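Shape matters. As here.
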Amino acid sequence: MLLSGGTSSTTENSAPAPSRSAKASGKASRFRHWRRQRPFVGGLLAMLGGVEMFFSGQLDLGHLHIQLGIEGLQATVIPIVLVLLGVLSVTMPPHHVFYGVLTLVVAVYSLVGVNMGGFLVGMLLSVVGGVLVAAWMGPPGAKRGMWAG
């Protein structure tokens, strides 16, 4: 080895096996790079808002089952659409403005269709997520025209 000055049974060309922390930091670095290439936080907030609306639409208070809309169909469809829009905005970043605007429209409509938008919490999460998705400017350092098509 270099510091001990003695010879070693291993050759100098062989590198030590990477430790678990090195593998974990490599995965974290790859995830960080992937996350920065798309509107991740906005899509995540839209998904969380949809999940919150879904569970608030299935709410039971004693013997009272709270559902608004046509037989509760809207209380199921709107949250699923919001989760789907969140997933699509994260997986398909070139279409982020379209998905962001659709998320905003569906989230505002949920105020009427799903228990006051999941008691306002789900609607606010989805509206903030939709705004972040629509306002996303692309990866840092990339030219805006690259994402246009």
